[in-house]
Amino acid sequence: MEEAEEITLVIMAISRVLVGMSARALAGADESLTLTQLRTLVVLEDCGPLKLVGLARVLGVNPSTAMRMVDRLEGAGLVERRVNPENRREVTVRLREDGEALVREVMGRRRAEVEALVARLTDEERAGLVPGLRALAGAAEEMGLVGRPVTGDAGDRLPFG
């Protein structure tokens, strides 16, 4: 097996593990929300208020799909639409307090699972993993796959997606 193929297979396998962690974290906080809806909340938490077209662009969906997502999240009391004070014809979408609290809870649960996984590695394994993961995160940034930088401070995190 070629090295690139092996790397791809390992990343795909760990991706499934991480999606499972995210699903468990979400189910523990709110069983009615989907992972896609959570991703929308996380994008709004990361980026702040966005116009619908901007939200759709970051999510990689068309505006009508983003509008339906916002409709559901607004109905659940997690986001709200506001008229843009700088241009009254535009509406922005922002997180409400309940949405912020849900993102914090889910991310806290997810972080705890990731920390437990990392704790199973030896110091040497952890040290060897960091440069490769930073390189992978940098490549994702270069490809425009993330909404904000992920290779800076330890507090940075990828948007959900």
TrEMBL record:
This is HTH marR-type domain-containing protein. Gene3D superfamilies: Winged helix-like DNA-binding domain superfamily/Winged helix DNA-binding domain. GO terms for biological process: response to stress. The lineage of its organism: Bacteria, Bacillati, Actinomycetota, Actinomycetes, Kitasatosporales. It comes from Streptomyces caatingaensis. It comes from the Bacteria. Residues 4-138 form the HTH marR-type domain. InterPro entries: HTH_MarR-typ, MarR/SlyA-like, WH-like_DNA-bd_sf, WH_DNA-bd_sf. SUPFAM superfamilies: Winged helix' DNA-binding domain (SSF46785). One of its GO terms (molecular function) is DNA-binding transcription factor activity.
